[in-house]
Amino acid sequence: MSIAVEGLPELRWTHRSGVAEVVAGGIRLTAAAGTDWSNDAAGDGNPVDNLSTSLSFEPGAGDFQFSARVEVRAPRTTFDAAVLTVWADDRHWAKLCFEQSPQQEAMVVSVVTDGFSDDANGAPIEGDAVWLRISRIGAAFAFHYSLDGSVWRFARLFRLDLTHDPLVGLMAQAPHGDRAVTTFTHVSFDRRTLHDLRAGD
Question: What spatial distance separates the first Cα and last Cα of the chain, rounded to whole Å?
Fold first, then answer.
């Protein structure tokens, strides 16, 4: 099935075909039960064997900013999330998530995997939606989030040991639940360099 989102290059799934529906102003993704991306730093070194699939595109070389307003429908189970992704291979990837915590609070969570996953939780977010953004600056990537789509808050700066340009995309995950229904609107991809990491502009 061909899926097009206005303002984005051609999209393709990173793994198996997923469940996607074009809706007014964006796209809705539904995660299959038990799907996730993780290679737990305290685990055995093997990535999870039930990988979710990201609807992704090739940004090409050079700086960019990729953002969306993300929403996750209630009810939510632990670790259900709407996600922006960076994917090179199963040991080199990153994700910025609007995720449900074990305490049943929604929060912005970032995971960077360069062999093993480095997982970091942010502050709780009120409501069922937030804005997420991935920026590339030279060889580095930056994660930001926003409560209103205007003022951006710094979440993370990192590099990956890459041999080729990665894909970036949109994903839903439901590690412990039957499914997670997520909606991405105001999706934007711009070839603009982020000049101030901490201020987010």
Answer: 36
Separation in Å, CA 51 to CA 32, 47, 56, 70, 153: 10, 9, 15, 20, 29
| Closest to 155 measured CA to CA, from 113, 126, 120 | 120
Q: Which of the four pLDDT bands, split at 50, 70 and 90, describes residue 127?
A: very high
pLDDT tens-digit series, residues 42-95: 888 788 878 999 999 999 999 999 999 999 988 899 999 999 999 999 999 999
Q: Could you give the CA distance from residue 95 to residue 90 in angstroms, rounded to a whole number?
A: 12
Position 1 pLDDT exceeds 60: no
Q: What is the DSSP string of 81-149?
A: EEEEEEEEETTEEEEEEEEE-TTS-EEEEEEEEESEEEEEEEEE--SSEEEEEEEEETTEEEEEEESSS
- Cα separation of 80 and 181, whole Å? 9
Radius of gyration of the chain (CA): 15
